[in-house]
Amino acid sequence: MSTAPTTAQGTQKLTPELKAFIAEWKEKPGNLVMILHHVQQHFGYIPREVAFEVADLIDVPLAKIYGVITFYNFFKLKKPGRNQIQVCMGTACYLKGGEDIIAELEGILGVGVNTVTPDGEFSVEAVRCLGCCGLAPVMVINGEVFGKVKTESLQGIIAKFRNA
Amino acid sequence: MSNLVQLEINGIPVSVPAGTTILNAAKAIHVKIPTLCYHPDLKAWAACGICVVRNAGSPKLLRACCTEVAPGMKITTHDADIVRVRRAVLELILANHPNDCLQCPRSGNCELQKLAADFGIRENPFPPDVQHIPVDNSTCSIVLNPEKCVKCGRCAIVCQEMQNVWALEFIGRGEKTRMAPAADVTLNESPCIKCGQCSAHCPVGAIYERDQTRQVWDALRDEDKYCVVQIAPAVRVAIGEAFGLPPGKLMTGETYAALRRLGFKAVFDTNYSADLTIMEEGSEFIKRFTTGGTLPLITSCCPAWTDWMEKYAQDFMDNFSTAKSPQQMLGVLAKTYYAEKMGIDPAKIFMVSVMPCTAKKYEISRSETMFASGYQDIDVVLTTRELARMLKSAGIDFPNLEPEEADSILGEYTGAGTIFGVTGGVMEAALRTAYCLITGEAQPPSIDFEAVRGMKGVKEATIDIKGTPVKIAVAHQMGNVEQVLEAIREDRKAGRKPRYDFIEVMACRGGCIGGGGQPTGATDEVRKARTAGLYTDDEKSVLRMSHLNPQIQTLYKEYIGEPLSEKAHHLLHNHYHPKKVYAK
Amino acid sequence: MSYKQYILVCGGTACDSIRGMELFNALKTAVKENGLINEVQVVRTGCLGFCEKGPIVKVLPQDTFYVEVKPEDAEEIIKEHIIKGREVSRLLYDKEQSKIHVAIEGIDFYQKQFRVVLRNCGAIDPNVIDEYIARDGYKALEKALFDMTPQDVIDEISKSGLRGRGGAGFPTGKKWSFAAAQPAGQKYMVCNADEGDPGAYMDRSTLEGDPHSVLEAMTIGGYAIGADKGFIYIRAEYPLAIKRLENALKQAREYGLLGNDILGSGFSFDIEIRLGAGAFVCGEETALLASIEGNRGMPRPRPPFPAVKGLWGRPTVINNVETLANIPVILLKGADWFNKIGTATSKGTKVFALTGKINNSGLIEVPMGTTLREIIFDIGGGIRGGKAFKAAQTGGPSGGIIPPQFLDTPIDYENLAKIGSIMGSGGLIVMDEDDCIPNIAKFYLDFTVDESCGKCAPCRIGGRKLLNYLDKICDGKGTHEDIENMREISEAMSRASLCGLGQTASNPVQSSLRYFMDEYKEHIDDKRCRAGKCKNLLRYTIDKTKCVGCTACARVCPANAIAGERKQPHAINNETCIKCGQCYEICKFHAITRE
Hints:
Chain B is 33% helix and 14% strand. Chain B is an alpha/beta fold.
């Protein structure tokens, strides 16, 4: 609907691959969530200026896009740490000490959940059940699954990722 | 074959057309099921849970606002059990709502307050939980107070589906949900066009007009200031509602009287400058129409509409009439023509404009042309709601006042001027005068142009002016406008002559009578009543065409010269500028 | 190509995370290096269910069942078992330490199971469509398209008594018939793979281990209701399942089993994957539809029901993964075969994710009517560490907490509802004496408050109030008035919430108040948490007979709550104690108890 470009400051731009995906999905009804997934897959989050670009490309009001982004936990508006730590908070993991893992991580890293460490290296978030309940408590770092996690082993695991 | 559905409500047989909701079916037997988030303008959102009712045979409760009647239903709308559930839901909502009715702009006129009173809430068993969230008063027109928001969703749905502006949306999830612009911008940085329809639909004091009554009181008390005031057409048929009178009751003379009692030294009528607008815009149209100028010509007296155009439809900027709105025309004349004629120092004139509109608060400083008199042409805009409050605090017994007349040189108006307040009114006024100016005849065959009247979102017609067809379109409620623009865009792309010559747009449903600054609670029923009031005002006017207004004729003879003259352009015309949809 | 022996390696996400992929590769390498490539096939299959003991390796045809296998064991398995024919006994599942080969049917975990939905999981490579076909895959579709009318299909499903496995238990045949009865036009089949219940992973395993069963079922459903398009709405948190589905779709299309004119029948149907994005509420039908439509996942009022007016206003059938996985079996083996399994009102089997304080944690499938006792003690092997069983929880955040007195309840939809719970999607959490019931209720409310979409007031506001009350109680500040208020709010939420999430969010509270009132009373009146879980109710006490007066605890106490002379037994002042636990951690003499 808009003939005037919406604006935002910031330097991130849609890549040619993302633009191609958007072009492919432009006419599909209900494309917004899938498009946002691809954007986040590339950037690790959804940069503000990219959200503006998507709004223009698929001709959807920015308000709608933000309504969707802020509704779904999966989508992030802030850049996460280089290493993303996800601690499962499903029932089994909770019963087997998931909260202690989070507390220990907060202690080691010095930041609370959903915050990036000052050096940009780590961010921790509590996530919904990952479906590995037989291995509770479960933690995922950059997609790598750690099962039956013990608080004592956390320092070592963190160090491994910091130096990687 | 009948499509009536037979059911029972509270044991009483009811027969209503298929598709009727339980809520509306209950009205047939004089049962008012309580609601909160429901609004007749909108598709039922079905959120709050207040309107629950029971159907026999199922322990589940149904929402009456959205559930259609089905044959054989046996509905109970209230019993001890249902009322208890409703009450608990209400108590939950109240627990999260600030407890400061005494200082709230909606006190006495609030849907939540009414529910609490009807349910006899005396104390709340649930612990209070009101989060402190700052107020957004970034626009000069509308204030957002999220602490009072009950998440009924009306504002966002209105802003998106009725108005197609998309300034507000549900942001966040769960208890963190808030109604706000996207991307953490303020309302002023968002696409908001200040139409105020959000405030007109909000059931509580979460969105309301910026109150400037204090400023006006201060000016009235200032002996150095010469306070003058104008009232819009739509005000006179709605201001009575704040005093218990029915919508549509004409209170023109009473309003002039009340304004004088408040202390205004001169009382003008925007209908006068509506007639003036027709002179300028009508001439503009005739010029473009007969000399191959840019068509269609689009009316620009609605500032919410011009704001929308500057953001979203910049490809139509050249189509806009450069004539100012009636409000602005009268403002500049008050500080030039009137001041000169009466020998008053324009620097001392404090011009107040009473409008049904929140966007008018923005219009008065929207560009440098609004300062054409050498001063800010209009100092303050008050909405109808604010004026009502001023009258009440002044102790004026408004319904019982003796009607008076306006101050004549900027106060006389024809029937054409007064219908500016309804959708189709500007077009009708323009057609009446255009017909005469083009054909040289005394008046058109029918002075009423029925084709442009009514609540249909887009009205189209071809008007025959002595063999010349003039194709017109009238749109109201911003959500209906895009299709008209798209049609023109298609014509342009195909290289065709645009299918309309003249388009009228009003941002609010029903036109200005449904404006964002009018007394709250407008539904189509109310809008129709207010509309009827203005058409009555037109019918009983002696003069019903703008160019016949003797004061206008005098103005041109003595001051402006001719329509579209250089002086006219300097004082009575303006420009448009492209704007970013998001300022940040 | 026929092999002499097959080595099946569980390739579910859980086993993968404990070096499952490494193990798979190690076995393949070992087979190659020992020149057995033409005789032994190593296959990565879906979940075998016994997650507690993963990674699992199964060797056929002997039916050897190895548990907790490491990549380093690969060489030994090949050399000893495959080549020399001697099983590696230390890797056998061997509960009794008897060192006797135990066939899978003899393993207590599997004895009472009846794998219908999970029939192929662990038996085929989910990445190879031929293996699915070899086990009667797509035969049901063939039968439906060529030997049955759409109405025949619906009748058979109705006769089978299959009920929705997502939790609500609505008769599947009826749902399909509603949609089929709508006038012809665009219709949709949707698979709900948004398995959001924490502690549930039945659908994930089915999709990872046997994706074609779902594709085949959706196609049959499309044929039955007159739809040519299907969507699978799957959580973004299941990347492996998504990958397996994408691969399965590709292969099915290549084989003409999906797409235009399937098997030359004239019927066309295709499926698209749509991702969720971290919203539990999108497991609710109308919220799911809103999400596919690209909107915020906020539910809509029903009626109209999706079967009449669903996706983009069109008739839509939404079925859970497990429900669908039953469809091909029902058509092939017949409704009569199916409805002999289970109870009078609940036919067939149910997959449960058995987790918590249980010895044999994992994925199980049992006939409806199996009792909780059988599941927990026979299949599950009883409570870990010999602790006392306290409660079982079914239905996730929408379910109830079940006390020991109902252990002999045969599991079916109605029986569970009677005791204040629901079947739910299949999460079955086992709790022991060290779990605190009010704390569990708090956990679930925490979840629901976070996941509430926020649209309707009863859930958005009521849920938070319930959580606040539970916080108060677990903090030792609760009152009996709080309990009354919780009851009032629970009723408002269950009667006036817009969707199932809000309507059932108070179930953990309501059921725990019903059966575990004593524990609430203890928290409120005695300010005591018998399970020791609520930190602020813990009492730390120094055992004077063990304390040597080293003063280590007193020095570390941030609240100066410990008093005592050097070399004399110390004492903790419970009024000032802030329950941080530092003293407990530091005492070398185990003189401090906490409870």
